[in-house]
Specification:
With 58 residues, the chain is mostly helical. The protein contains 2 helices and no strands. Helix 1 crosses helix 2.
Amino acid sequence: MSLSRGSQRPDQERMALAEIELCGELMIAAAATVEDRLSWLRIDEVLEVRSPGGGLRA
């Protein structure tokens, strides 16, 4: 199934581009780490995830 460019709403396109950008940021962070995997804390840091209290999620 292929979607023509006109069939997606502009907000869906923005969301898709934002997701692609976040995936790219994670790939860059993963390539730069010496560990086998990114820690949850590092993932939150890269994605700028904040807890309800305002800090990084623990």
